[in-house]
Design a protein that fits this description.
By secondary structure, this protein is of the alpha+beta class. It is built from two helices and eleven strands; from the N terminus they run ααβββββββββββ. The structure holds FE2/S2 (inorganic) cluster (FES).
C-alpha cells in the first residue's frame, strides 16, 4: 500500500512537445476567426433590436385629419369632449388607438380644440362649464377657458390641436401632443 502511493507520488508530469510554428499560426488563426465570428454574430443579433428602439426618434410624427362630425352637431360656445382615431393606429391597438380632445365652437366655422392631457403630468383634465375652467383632478391644476394656466403646477397652457372645416365637417389634426 505504501509502495503504491510512493510510486504514484513520483510520476513525472508528461510534457507535450513544443508547438511548431505551423501549429502556432493555426491557433492564432482560429483565435482570430472565433473573435470575428463572435463580433459578427453579436452585431447580427443586436443591430435589429437597437434599430427597432431608435427608429421612432428619426421618423416624422404621423399626422392625419380625422372627421369629428357635421358642423351643425356642435352648438356655438359649447365645449364638448370628442374622440377620434390616432394618426397611425395599429391593427391590434383596440381602444388605445383612440384619442380625445375638448372641442369648442367659437364661430360659424371656427373651432378650437384642447388636449385632454394636463400639461403637468398628463392626467385627463375636465371641463367645468359652470366655472368656465378646465380642472385637473391629480394635483389641482386649473386652466382658463382659453387653455392658459390659472393655478396649480402645470408649467404651460393646455396644448391645442389644429382644427379645420371641410365640406361641412369639422376635422381635427390627429398628431401626437407633446406633454412637455
Ligand atoms: S397632472 Fe394635472 S396638475 Fe398634475
Amino acid at each position: 500500500m505504501t509502495q503504491k502511493s510512493d510510486s504514484a507520488a513520483h510520476v513525472a508530469p508528461v510534457e507535450s512537445p513544443p508547438a511548431t510554428a505551423a501549429e502556432l499560426a493555426r491557433r492564432q488563426f482560429l483565435g482570430k476567426m472565433s473573435l470575428t465570428l463572435g463580433v459578427v454574430g453579436g452585431a447580427a443579433i443586436s443591430v435589429p433590436g437597437v434599430g427597432f428602439v431608435l427608429a421612432p426618434l428619426f421618423r416624422d410624427a404621423p399626422q392625419a385629419w380625422r372627421s369629428l362630425g357635421k358642423i351643425d352637431a356642435f352648438a356655438l360656445g359649447a365645449t364638448v369632449n370628442v374622440v377620434f382615431l390616432d394618426a397611425s393606429p395599429l391593427p391590434w391597438a383596440g381602444v388605445t388607438a383612440k384619442s380625445a380632445a375638448w372641442l369648442r365652437r367659437t364661430g360659424d366655422e371656427e373651432f378650437v380644440a384642447f388636449s385632454v392631457n394636463c400639461a403637468h403630468l398628463g392626467c385627463p383634465v375636465r371641463w367645468m362649464a359652470d366655472a368656465d375652467l378646465f380642472m385637473c383632478p391629480c394635483h389641482g391644476g386649473v386652466y382658463y377657458a382659453d387653455g392658459r394656466g390659472a393655478a396649480g403646477p402645470p408649467p404651460h397652457p393646455l396644448r391645442q390641436y389644429p382644427v379645420r372645416v371641410r365640406n361641412g365637417e369639422v376635422e381635427i389634426s390627429a398628431e401626437p401632443i407633446p406633454l412637455k
